[in-house]
């Protein structure tokens, strides 16, 4: 086994050294520029009308191009998939005239083209079994639902499990170099920052917002708070992972750390609690896996505790004041 193969085999994201390999400064600046340029994308899409179709066409088209080219690296295709996961809800928020599950089916198409072109037929058994167990329910739907409802019902309920199966297949036994893993985190975080910025803009520009004990559409960019909260919770998890997995590179660590706090603040402001609950649970599981690396455990725990204290003692009270105490009442209610 070559030295390079050995290094890839031993790679564990929770034991990262510096991710800023090669031209590190250029990588950092490209990340920051890409993030800043992306922030107003949601506001542009809100006003773009049919021109907004150019964005999903460009993203999915580029992903299919990479998937079809056998020379494309696996990690490059993964960047497009990660970006699609983050940007799909933005298309829905902005009412981009594309079908509802475009992000999921676009990702599935990219994955299948990539796998077929590379003759990877080894499907992981557990995800395949999971998807197969859902098929009897589809048969029941086919036999009992009218035709005009059937397509939408099957698409709504099965697109997620289908993408889960294909993603498990695509990433099965795939190993990333540290710099590739960093780029994947960035590709997922940036569109979610765009979602958060759009929600923030429409919150501060609203003439009046009435806060109740329910999820809030006005602070969610005028879209479903549960979906926005769930995606922002994912952003909290992904950006926090970037902040604690990077051992070097203070600029990128700061970028991920500030992104975590911003995403958490906007996620909380949607008044839909599921996103933050999911983020905290995911971070907890990630830290448990980190117990295997005792050398970095104390650093990660101290960073986690510091971020939690900053959010609870500074950011949460500021948002609570903005909502006249409604936020504290909302999170104080532990009923489902």
Written account of the structure:
The chain contains 14 helices and no strands. It is mainly alpha-helical. Helix 2 runs parallel beside helix 9 and helix 6 crosses helix 8. The N terminus is likely disordered. The longest helix has 29 residues. The protein is 73% helix and 0% strand.
What gyration radius follows from the Cα positions, in whole Å?
21 Å
Q: Choose one word for the global shape.
A: globular
Say how many strands there are.
Answer: 0
Secondary structure category: mainly alpha
**Percentage of residues in DSSP E strands:** under 5%
**Succession of helices and strands:** HHHHHHHHHHHHHH
- Roughly how much helix do the residues carry, as a percent range? over 70%
Summed up, the helix count is 14
Average pLDDT rating: 88
Instruction: Describe the main β-sheet briefly.
Output: none
- CA-CA gap between termini: 53 Å
Low-confidence spans: 1-22
List strands and helices in order, with pairings.
Blueprint: H1 3-9, H2 24-38, H3 41-48, H4 54-68, H5 74-93, H6 102-117, H7 125-144, H8 147-171, H9 178-204, H10 225-245, H11 250-269, H12 274-289, H13 294-322, H14 326-332
